[in-house]
Here is the input.
Amino acid sequence: MSKQATRVLLRERGAMCDTFEKVGPDAPTLCTGWDTLDLAAHLVAREARSDAALGLVVPFLAGHLQNVMDKYKTKGYEPLVAMLRTGPPWMYRTGPLATANVNEMFVHHEDVRRPAGEPPRPMDAEMDQILWKLVGFGMRQKSIPGVSLTLRAPDGREKVVTKAGSPVALIGPTGELTLYLSGRKAAAEVTFEGGDDAVAVVRDAKFGV
Here is the structure.
C-alpha cells in the first residue's frame, strides 16, 4: 500500500497543480474565505512548517498559521504552485502519511475544481481503494446523537461509522463520501436513506476540521 499510495499521491498532486495553473490565483475555493492563492499558501505551509500546521487543530495557534501563510503568499502564486509540483517532503510521501496525504490532496483538488464548475471525476481503482480505506475514519472517535450512520458505495460496499441510534445510510461514490465527511457538504453528490428526522441530524452534523 505504501508504494501505491506514493504513486497515487504524486499523480493527484500533479493534477491539482495543473488545476491551480488553469484557474489562476484569484479563483474561489470550497474553503470558506480562501481563494486559490490562500489555499496554495496553506498547502505549502502545512508541509514546510509543522509548527504552523498545528494551527489547524489547536485554536490558539490559528493566528500563527495565518501569519506563516501570509508570508508564503508574498512569494507569489506561480512560485507556490511550483513548490507544490516538486512533491511533498519525504515524511509526507511514504508510509501512513502518504496514504493520509492522498486524502488531503484529493479534497483540496476538489476545493478548486468544484467552484470552477467541474463535475465529479471518474475515479481509478487505486485512488478509490485508498479513499475508501480512510473515509469515515475520524467518525469512529465521534458520535452523531441518535443516529447509526452507514456509508454505502454504488457497488454495495458498506462501512458502519457510528452505531447507536436510528439507521441512516449516506450513499455515493467514494470521492463524494470523502467530500461530505470532510465538511464539503454542499459540493458532494450524495443521497440519504433513512427516516426524515435522523437524516436531518446527519445533515446538520459538523464534519471536517
User: Anything to note?
Assistant: The chain has two domains: 2-116, 135-204. The first strand starts at residue 147 and ends at 152.
